[in-house]
Amino acid sequence: xxxxxxxxxxxxxxxxxxxxxxxxxxxxxxxxxxxxxxxxxxxxxxxxxxxxxxxxxxxxxxxxxxxxxxxxxxxxxxxxxxxxxxxxxxxxxxxxxxxxxxxxxxxxxxxxxxxxxxxxxxxxxxxx
Length: 128
Prior knowledge:
By secondary structure, the chain is α+β, with helices and mostly antiparallel strands. The protein has one domain: CATH 3.90.470.10. The protein has helices at 6-15, 32-42, 47-55, 62-78, and strands spanning 22-28, 87-96, 100-105, 111-116, 119-127. A hairpin with a 5-residue loop joins strand 3 and strand 4. The mean pLDDT is 92.
């Protein structure tokens, strides 16, 4: 059991803020599996190098991930005053979002279900 009053525990927990620059997109119209393949190619790389890689990646979620990465870089430079040339991708992950369910009409009055997956993509940077 935790020690201290509930307010003390909350105060201590809230003091441990994460100061790393980050950006995320929710409900992106790409499946989490496809986004993870692209994210694995840029994990641990220099941020400018990762932008160049994403610009020439023909995969499905590369444009969305490129926007999120540029947003995280802008957050680091403008909000936290970090040098954009020293940034690297510390964490990058895609979680599964809600699936849009649609119906496709088929022969003899039947209907097939179409699943349109979404994902929540997050990128966390740090300075070398």
